[in-house]
Amino acid sequence: MHKTVGFIGCGNMGKAILRGILDSGWVSASKVMVSTSREETLEEIRSLYQTEVTRDNRKVAQHSDYLFLAVKPHLYETVLNQVKEDIGEETIIIGMAAGVTLQKMETYLGKEAKMVKIMPNTPVAVKEGLIAMTASAQLDEVEKENVIAMLSTIGKVSLIEEKHMDVITGISGSSPAYVYMFIEAMADAAVKNGLPRKEAYEISAQAVLGAAKMVLETGIHPGMLKDMVTSPGGTTIEAVTMLEEKGLRHAVISAVDACIDKSREMSK
Question: pTM (2 decimals)?
Fold first, then answer.
C-alpha cells in the first residue's frame, strides 16, 4: 500500500520532486498534500498536479507518512516548531535545505524523529537527478529502502555520510548551473560562427549529455576519454590547449570550492 506524501513549501525544487514522483506513478495525486503561503502557488499546484492543497502546515504534517520540507533554510526552525505536535512517530521527515543538518532539524523539532537529509539537483524534474541522502539512526533498513525506492523514481540515489553533504552541494546540488553556463557559452560560440540559436543549444546540450553518459556507462577515466578525442595536431587539441591556457580547470575548482565553503558556513 502506498504511503501518503506531504510537502510543506513547494518552490522550484519541491515542484521538481513532486512532478517526478507523480509522473513515475510511485504515488497518486490523491495521496499528496501540499501547503504554501502563497495563494497563487496553491492554485498553480492544484491546476498542474490535482493534489490537495492548503495553507495549513499542520494539516500537511498530520496527513503525511513522508513529509518533505521544501522551504528556505531560515524557515526550518519556525516550521518544525509549528508542526512538532502533529508529526506522527512513524512519519519520515525529509529535509533538503543546504546548511540544515539532521542535528539542527532534531533541535528545531525538540525531539528525536525519523529524519532524512537529501541534497537533490533540479534534473529530478526529468528523472535524471542525483539525490545524495543520509538518514538518522531512528530509521531502520526497511524504512531507508522505502525512501530510496521513492527517490529512485526521479534519479540516482547516493548514500553518503552527512559530513560530505556540503561537498555534494558543490558538485551536484549547485552544479547544474555551471553546466548550463558551459552549454550557453558553447552555443554562443556557435552562433558567433553562424549557426542558428535553436540548433546551437540543442547540439551543445546533446554533446554534454552524450559525454556524461560515456563517463557513466563505460567506466573509463574522463582524462582517457578526452585523450581518445584529441588526435595529434588536430582541432580538439587546439581547443583543449586554449581551455588550459584560459584556466578552465582552475575556474571550475575555484567555483566548487566557493560553493562548498558557503555551504559549510551555512551549516555552522
Answer: 0.86
